[in-house]
Amino acid sequence: MKRVYNFNAGPAALPKQVLQRAQEELLDFQDAGMSVMELSHRSKEYEKVHQKAATLLKELLHIPVDYDILFMQGGASLQFSAIPLNFLSKGKTANYSLSGSWSEKALKEAEKIGSTHVASTAKNTDYTTIPSQLELSEEAAYLHLTSNNTIFGTQWREFPSLPSYIPLIADMSSDILSRAINVKDFSLIYAGAQKNLGPSGVTVVIIKKELLKNCPDNIPTMLNYQTHAKNKSLYNTPPTFSIYMLSLVLEWVSEQGGVEAIEKINLEKANLLYDTIDQSGGFYIGHAEKVARSHMNVTFNLSSEELTSVFLNQAKEEGFVGLAGHRMVGGCRASIYNAVPLESCQALAEFMKRFQTNYR
Ligand code: PMP
After folding, report:
1. Using one digit for the tens of pLDDT, what is the confidence trace for 142-178?
2. Helical ranges in the chain per DSSP H
3. Which pLDDT band holds residue 327 (cuts at 50, 70, 90)?
Protein backbone atom coordinates (compact mmCIF):
# COMPACT_ATOMS: atom_id res chain seq x y z
CA MET A 1 0.00 0.00 0.00
CA LYS A 2 1.31 3.42 -0.98
CA ARG A 3 0.84 6.38 1.42
CA VAL A 4 2.03 9.75 0.12
CA TYR A 5 3.52 12.69 2.01
CA ASN A 6 0.27 14.57 2.52
CA PHE A 7 0.56 18.37 2.85
CA ASN A 8 -3.08 19.14 1.99
CA ALA A 9 -4.58 22.27 3.53
CA GLY A 10 -7.88 20.64 4.47
CA PRO A 11 -9.27 18.06 4.37
CA ALA A 12 -5.82 17.03 5.46
CA ALA A 13 -3.68 14.19 6.77
CA LEU A 14 -5.11 12.04 9.56
CA PRO A 15 -3.00 9.95 11.93
CA LYS A 16 -2.39 6.52 10.41
CA GLN A 17 -3.24 4.84 13.72
CA VAL A 18 -6.64 6.55 13.70
CA LEU A 19 -7.42 5.34 10.19
CA GLN A 20 -6.35 1.83 11.10
CA ARG A 21 -8.52 1.81 14.21
CA ALA A 22 -11.51 3.06 12.20
CA GLN A 23 -10.86 0.33 9.65
CA GLU A 24 -10.72 -2.36 12.33
CA GLU A 25 -14.00 -1.18 13.84
CA LEU A 26 -15.77 -0.36 10.60
CA LEU A 27 -17.96 -3.45 10.20
CA ASP A 28 -18.59 -4.24 13.84
CA PHE A 29 -18.30 -1.34 16.25
CA GLN A 30 -17.58 -2.65 19.76
CA ASP A 31 -19.77 -5.74 19.37
CA ALA A 32 -22.78 -3.73 18.20
CA GLY A 33 -22.92 -5.95 15.11
CA MET A 34 -22.95 -2.87 12.90
CA SER A 35 -20.79 0.08 11.93
CA VAL A 36 -20.73 3.20 14.06
CA MET A 37 -22.35 4.92 11.03
CA GLU A 38 -25.33 2.58 11.29
CA LEU A 39 -26.01 3.21 14.99
CA SER A 40 -28.96 5.36 16.01
CA HIS A 41 -27.80 8.71 17.27
CA ARG A 42 -30.07 8.07 20.26
CA SER A 43 -28.42 4.72 21.12
CA LYS A 44 -26.36 4.10 24.25
CA GLU A 45 -23.38 3.08 22.10
CA TYR A 46 -23.39 6.32 20.13
CA GLU A 47 -24.01 8.41 23.23
CA LYS A 48 -20.70 7.11 24.63
CA VAL A 49 -18.83 8.18 21.47
CA HIS A 50 -20.40 11.64 21.59
CA GLN A 51 -19.59 12.04 25.27
CA LYS A 52 -16.04 10.75 24.83
CA ALA A 53 -15.30 13.36 22.15
CA ALA A 54 -16.55 16.19 24.37
CA THR A 55 -14.72 14.92 27.47
CA LEU A 56 -11.40 14.45 25.67
CA LEU A 57 -11.60 17.90 24.11
CA LYS A 58 -12.32 19.39 27.53
CA GLU A 59 -9.28 17.64 28.99
CA LEU A 60 -6.90 18.42 26.14
CA LEU A 61 -7.70 22.14 25.97
CA HIS A 62 -8.28 22.51 29.73
CA ILE A 63 -11.73 23.93 29.02
CA PRO A 64 -13.23 25.46 32.18
CA VAL A 65 -16.61 24.28 33.55
CA ASP A 66 -18.39 27.47 32.55
CA TYR A 67 -18.01 26.59 28.85
CA ASP A 68 -20.13 24.32 26.66
CA ILE A 69 -18.79 22.22 23.80
CA LEU A 70 -21.05 22.00 20.77
CA PHE A 71 -20.83 19.82 17.67
CA MET A 72 -22.43 21.66 14.78
CA GLN A 73 -22.60 21.32 10.98
CA GLY A 74 -22.27 23.72 8.06
CA GLY A 75 -18.51 24.08 8.43
CA ALA A 76 -16.68 27.03 9.89
CA SER A 77 -18.41 29.08 7.17
CA LEU A 78 -21.83 28.73 8.79
CA GLN A 79 -20.36 30.14 12.00
CA PHE A 80 -19.63 33.35 10.05
CA SER A 81 -23.44 33.85 10.00
CA ALA A 82 -24.32 32.22 13.32
CA ILE A 83 -22.08 34.55 15.32
CA PRO A 84 -23.66 37.85 14.24
CA LEU A 85 -27.15 36.31 14.26
CA ASN A 86 -26.70 35.36 17.92
CA PHE A 87 -24.62 38.25 19.23
CA LEU A 88 -24.98 41.31 17.04
CA SER A 89 -28.01 43.02 18.54
CA LYS A 90 -29.51 46.36 17.55
CA GLY A 91 -27.45 49.33 18.69
CA LYS A 92 -24.26 47.22 18.84
CA THR A 93 -21.40 46.96 16.37
CA ALA A 94 -19.54 43.78 15.46
CA ASN A 95 -15.76 44.31 15.37
CA TYR A 96 -13.47 42.34 13.07
CA SER A 97 -9.70 41.95 12.85
CA LEU A 98 -8.78 41.25 9.26
CA SER A 99 -5.81 38.92 8.81
CA GLY A 100 -6.74 37.15 5.58
CA SER A 101 -9.54 35.95 3.34
CA TRP A 102 -11.32 33.89 5.98
CA SER A 103 -11.70 36.87 8.28
CA GLU A 104 -12.88 38.94 5.31
CA LYS A 105 -15.50 36.30 4.61
CA ALA A 106 -16.61 36.31 8.25
CA LEU A 107 -16.98 40.11 8.11
CA LYS A 108 -18.99 39.92 4.89
CA GLU A 109 -21.62 37.73 6.56
CA ALA A 110 -21.85 40.03 9.58
CA GLU A 111 -22.39 43.02 7.25
CA LYS A 112 -25.60 41.35 6.06
CA ILE A 113 -26.91 41.22 9.60
CA GLY A 114 -26.00 44.50 11.28
CA SER A 115 -23.48 47.21 11.97
CA THR A 116 -19.80 46.25 11.61
CA HIS A 117 -16.41 47.85 12.12
CA VAL A 118 -12.90 46.84 11.04
CA ALA A 119 -10.94 47.13 14.30
CA SER A 120 -7.61 46.23 12.71
CA THR A 121 -6.35 44.97 9.39
CA ALA A 122 -3.22 43.64 7.72
CA LYS A 123 -4.63 43.97 4.19
CA ASN A 124 -2.20 46.82 3.47
CA THR A 125 0.73 44.38 3.85
CA ASP A 126 -0.87 41.85 1.51
CA TYR A 127 -1.57 39.80 4.63
CA THR A 128 2.09 39.05 5.27
CA THR A 129 1.65 40.25 8.85
CA ILE A 130 -0.81 40.05 11.74
CA PRO A 131 -2.79 43.25 12.33
CA SER A 132 -1.68 45.58 15.08
CA GLN A 133 -3.15 48.75 16.58
CA LEU A 134 -6.60 47.67 17.53
CA GLU A 135 -9.27 50.37 17.44
CA LEU A 136 -12.57 49.11 18.75
CA SER A 137 -15.86 50.82 17.95
CA GLU A 138 -18.30 52.18 20.50
CA GLU A 139 -20.81 49.59 21.75
CA ALA A 140 -18.75 46.67 20.50
CA ALA A 141 -20.82 43.45 20.38
CA TYR A 142 -17.64 41.35 20.12
CA LEU A 143 -14.24 41.18 18.42
CA HIS A 144 -13.75 38.41 15.88
CA LEU A 145 -10.35 37.21 14.68
CA THR A 146 -8.87 34.28 12.76
CA SER A 147 -6.08 32.75 14.83
CA ASN A 148 -4.29 31.11 11.91
CA ASN A 149 -4.54 32.24 8.32
CA THR A 150 -4.58 29.07 6.28
CA ILE A 151 -4.14 30.78 2.92
CA PHE A 152 -1.48 33.38 3.71
CA GLY A 153 0.42 31.36 6.32
CA THR A 154 0.33 33.81 9.21
CA GLN A 155 -0.66 33.17 12.82
CA TRP A 156 -1.46 35.24 15.89
CA ARG A 157 1.17 34.67 18.58
CA GLU A 158 -0.46 36.82 21.25
CA PHE A 159 -4.13 37.63 21.26
CA PRO A 160 -5.53 41.09 22.03
CA SER A 161 -6.67 41.58 25.59
CA LEU A 162 -10.08 43.24 25.72
CA PRO A 163 -12.19 44.75 28.47
CA SER A 164 -14.05 41.85 30.12
CA TYR A 165 -17.43 43.01 28.78
CA ILE A 166 -16.34 42.57 25.13
CA PRO A 167 -16.36 38.92 24.01
CA LEU A 168 -13.36 37.71 22.01
CA ILE A 169 -14.39 35.25 19.31
CA ALA A 170 -11.84 33.22 17.37
CA ASP A 171 -11.96 31.11 14.25
CA MET A 172 -9.34 28.46 15.10
CA SER A 173 -10.17 26.18 12.18
CA SER A 174 -6.57 25.72 11.13
CA ASP A 175 -4.70 25.70 14.43
CA ILE A 176 -6.98 24.38 17.15
CA LEU A 177 -5.20 21.78 19.29
CA SER A 178 -1.84 22.60 17.70
CA ARG A 179 -0.65 24.75 20.61
CA ALA A 180 -1.62 25.53 24.16
CA ILE A 181 -4.19 28.30 24.49
CA ASN A 182 -5.95 29.84 27.42
CA VAL A 183 -9.62 29.15 26.68
CA LYS A 184 -10.61 31.67 29.35
CA ASP A 185 -9.32 34.47 27.10
CA PHE A 186 -12.08 33.69 24.61
CA SER A 187 -15.85 33.77 24.80
CA LEU A 188 -16.28 31.59 21.75
CA ILE A 189 -13.87 29.44 19.74
CA TYR A 190 -14.92 27.55 16.63
CA ALA A 191 -13.19 25.24 14.20
CA GLY A 192 -14.13 23.12 11.21
CA ALA A 193 -12.71 19.68 11.94
CA GLN A 194 -10.98 18.88 8.69
CA LYS A 195 -7.49 20.14 9.56
CA ASN A 196 -6.48 19.25 13.11
CA LEU A 197 -9.54 17.47 14.47
CA GLY A 198 -10.71 14.83 12.02
CA PRO A 199 -12.65 14.56 8.77
CA SER A 200 -14.94 17.30 7.48
CA GLY A 201 -18.58 17.30 8.58
CA VAL A 202 -18.39 18.52 12.16
CA THR A 203 -17.63 21.98 13.50
CA VAL A 204 -16.52 22.27 17.10
CA VAL A 205 -17.78 25.29 19.06
CA ILE A 206 -16.48 26.10 22.53
CA ILE A 207 -18.74 28.72 24.05
CA LYS A 208 -18.88 30.48 27.39
CA LYS A 209 -22.22 29.56 28.97
CA GLU A 210 -22.85 33.16 29.96
CA LEU A 211 -22.98 34.12 26.27
CA LEU A 212 -25.87 31.73 25.63
CA LYS A 213 -28.19 34.08 27.50
CA ASN A 214 -27.82 36.59 24.67
CA CYS A 215 -29.04 34.30 21.87
CA PRO A 216 -32.32 35.71 20.53
CA ASP A 217 -35.41 33.51 20.02
CA ASN A 218 -36.27 34.92 16.62
CA ILE A 219 -33.39 33.41 14.66
CA PRO A 220 -33.50 30.03 12.88
CA THR A 221 -33.52 27.21 15.44
CA MET A 222 -30.53 25.43 13.91
CA LEU A 223 -28.41 28.59 13.99
CA ASN A 224 -29.20 29.32 17.61
CA TYR A 225 -26.38 28.20 19.92
CA GLN A 226 -28.91 27.62 22.70
CA THR A 227 -30.60 24.88 20.68
CA HIS A 228 -27.39 22.90 20.54
CA ALA A 229 -26.32 23.65 24.11
CA LYS A 230 -29.69 22.64 25.60
CA ASN A 231 -29.77 19.41 23.62
CA LYS A 232 -26.10 18.44 24.04
CA SER A 233 -25.68 18.76 20.25
CA LEU A 234 -28.38 16.11 19.71
CA TYR A 235 -31.28 18.36 18.73
CA ASN A 236 -31.18 16.79 15.27
CA THR A 237 -29.02 14.04 13.78
CA PRO A 238 -25.40 14.99 14.34
CA PRO A 239 -22.63 13.93 11.90
CA THR A 240 -22.06 10.73 13.89
CA PHE A 241 -19.19 9.30 11.86
CA SER A 242 -17.26 12.59 11.91
CA ILE A 243 -17.73 12.85 15.68
CA TYR A 244 -16.55 9.26 16.07
CA MET A 245 -13.43 10.09 14.02
CA LEU A 246 -12.95 13.23 16.12
CA SER A 247 -13.01 11.09 19.27
CA LEU A 248 -10.29 8.83 17.81
CA VAL A 249 -8.13 11.82 16.82
CA LEU A 250 -8.50 13.28 20.31
CA GLU A 251 -7.49 9.95 21.82
CA TRP A 252 -4.44 9.96 19.56
CA VAL A 253 -3.51 13.50 20.70
CA SER A 254 -3.76 12.29 24.31
CA GLU A 255 -1.48 9.35 23.55
CA GLN A 256 1.09 11.75 22.04
CA GLY A 257 1.26 13.53 25.41
CA GLY A 258 -1.45 16.11 24.83
CA VAL A 259 -1.44 19.52 23.22
CA GLU A 260 1.71 20.66 25.00
CA ALA A 261 3.74 17.73 23.58
CA ILE A 262 2.22 18.15 20.11
CA GLU A 263 3.10 21.86 20.17
CA LYS A 264 6.79 21.03 20.60
CA ILE A 265 6.78 18.67 17.61
CA ASN A 266 4.86 21.24 15.56
CA LEU A 267 7.51 23.84 16.31
CA GLU A 268 10.24 21.45 15.28
CA LYS A 269 8.41 20.69 12.01
CA ALA A 270 7.84 24.36 11.24
CA ASN A 271 11.43 25.35 12.09
CA LEU A 272 12.77 22.67 9.80
CA LEU A 273 10.91 24.10 6.80
CA TYR A 274 11.46 27.77 7.65
CA ASP A 275 15.19 27.12 8.18
CA THR A 276 15.32 25.50 4.74
CA ILE A 277 13.71 28.62 3.27
CA ASP A 278 15.93 31.04 5.22
CA GLN A 279 19.13 29.17 4.40
CA SER A 280 18.38 28.96 0.68
CA GLY A 281 19.96 32.34 -0.08
CA GLY A 282 16.74 33.62 -1.63
CA PHE A 283 16.00 30.56 -3.76
CA TYR A 284 12.88 30.04 -1.65
CA ILE A 285 11.10 33.19 -0.49
CA GLY A 286 8.75 32.97 2.50
CA HIS A 287 5.44 34.83 2.10
CA ALA A 288 4.87 35.80 5.74
CA GLU A 289 7.04 38.14 7.77
CA LYS A 290 9.13 36.13 10.22
CA VAL A 291 7.32 37.26 13.37
CA ALA A 292 3.94 36.34 11.90
CA ARG A 293 4.85 32.94 10.47
CA SER A 294 2.29 30.19 10.87
CA HIS A 295 3.38 26.91 12.42
CA MET A 296 0.62 25.19 10.47
CA ASN A 297 0.79 26.55 6.91
CA VAL A 298 4.23 27.30 5.49
CA THR A 299 3.82 29.54 2.44
CA PHE A 300 6.68 30.27 0.05
CA ASN A 301 7.55 31.19 -3.50
CA LEU A 302 10.28 30.42 -5.99
CA SER A 303 11.73 33.09 -8.27
CA SER A 304 9.32 32.52 -11.19
CA GLU A 305 6.04 30.82 -11.99
CA GLU A 306 7.86 28.46 -14.35
CA LEU A 307 10.29 27.33 -11.65
CA THR A 308 7.40 26.95 -9.17
CA SER A 309 5.63 24.74 -11.65
CA VAL A 310 8.73 22.56 -12.17
CA PHE A 311 9.13 22.34 -8.38
CA LEU A 312 5.52 21.28 -7.85
CA ASN A 313 5.64 18.69 -10.65
CA GLN A 314 8.84 17.11 -9.36
CA ALA A 315 7.52 17.14 -5.81
CA LYS A 316 4.41 15.31 -6.98
CA GLU A 317 6.51 12.69 -8.75
CA GLU A 318 8.37 12.07 -5.50
CA GLY A 319 5.16 11.57 -3.53
CA PHE A 320 4.63 15.06 -2.03
CA VAL A 321 0.96 15.97 -2.34
CA GLY A 322 -0.89 19.23 -1.72
CA LEU A 323 2.02 21.67 -2.03
CA ALA A 324 0.44 24.14 -4.49
CA GLY A 325 -0.42 27.46 -2.83
CA HIS A 326 -4.03 28.64 -2.64
CA ARG A 327 -5.22 30.05 -5.97
CA MET A 328 -5.42 33.54 -4.42
CA VAL A 329 -1.77 33.62 -3.36
CA GLY A 330 -0.06 31.19 -5.72
CA GLY A 331 3.37 29.75 -5.03
CA CYS A 332 3.67 26.89 -2.59
CA ARG A 333 2.16 25.96 0.74
CA ALA A 334 3.03 23.06 3.02
CA SER A 335 0.27 22.46 5.55
CA ILE A 336 1.82 20.68 8.49
CA TYR A 337 -1.06 20.02 10.86
CA ASN A 338 -0.78 17.78 13.93
CA ALA A 339 -1.11 14.53 11.97
CA VAL A 340 1.68 15.34 9.50
CA PRO A 341 4.67 13.41 10.89
CA LEU A 342 8.07 15.00 11.46
CA GLU A 343 9.45 12.51 8.91
CA SER A 344 7.28 14.05 6.16
CA CYS A 345 8.75 17.47 6.92
CA GLN A 346 12.27 16.05 6.99
CA ALA A 347 11.67 14.42 3.60
CA LEU A 348 10.29 17.70 2.21
CA ALA A 349 13.24 19.72 3.53
CA GLU A 350 15.63 17.25 1.91
CA PHE A 351 13.73 17.44 -1.37
CA MET A 352 13.79 21.26 -1.29
CA LYS A 353 17.56 21.26 -0.78
CA ARG A 354 18.10 18.74 -3.58
CA PHE A 355 15.87 20.73 -5.92
CA GLN A 356 17.78 23.90 -5.13
CA THR A 357 21.13 22.24 -5.92
CA ASN A 358 19.79 21.07 -9.29
CA TYR A 359 18.08 24.29 -10.32
CA ARG A 360 20.11 27.09 -8.83
N1 PMP B 1 -11.71 29.52 8.46
C2 PMP B 1 -10.47 29.09 8.19
C3 PMP B 1 -9.32 29.68 8.94
C4 PMP B 1 -10.28 28.11 7.22
O5 PMP B 1 -9.04 27.70 6.93
C6 PMP B 1 -11.38 27.56 6.54
C7 PMP B 1 -11.27 26.48 5.50
N8 PMP B 1 -10.11 26.30 4.87
C9 PMP B 1 -12.65 28.08 6.83
C10 PMP B 1 -12.78 29.03 7.82
C11 PMP B 1 -13.87 27.55 6.14
O12 PMP B 1 -14.16 26.29 6.64
P13 PMP B 1 -15.31 25.37 6.10
O14 PMP B 1 -14.88 24.88 4.77
O15 PMP B 1 -15.38 24.28 7.14
O16 PMP B 1 -16.55 26.17 6.04
Report:
1. 999 999 999 999 999 999 999 999 999 999 999 999 9
2. 16-25, 44-60, 75-87, 101-111, 209-212, 225-230, 240-255, 258-278, 305-317, 342-359
3. confident
Active site residue 252: no
What is the domain-level CATH number for residue 324?
3.90.1150.10
- Can 28 be counted among the known catalytic residues? no
Specify whether 249 is located in the same domain as 271.
Answer: no
5 inside domain: no
Nearest atom, ligand 1, residue 193 CA: 15
Distance 337 CA to ligand 1 centre (A): 14
For residue 2, what pLDDT is reported?
Answer: 85
Domain-embedded: residue 342: yes
Q: Is 102 a catalytic residue?
A: yes
Residues 44 and 189 in one domain: yes
**What is the spatial distance between Cα 112 and Cα 159, in angstroms, rounded to a whole number?**
27
Q: Does the CB atom of residue 99 touch ligand 1 within 6 A? A: no
Q: What is the pTM of this model?
A: 0.98
Task: Please report the atom of ligand 1 found closest to the CA of residue 194.
Answer: 15
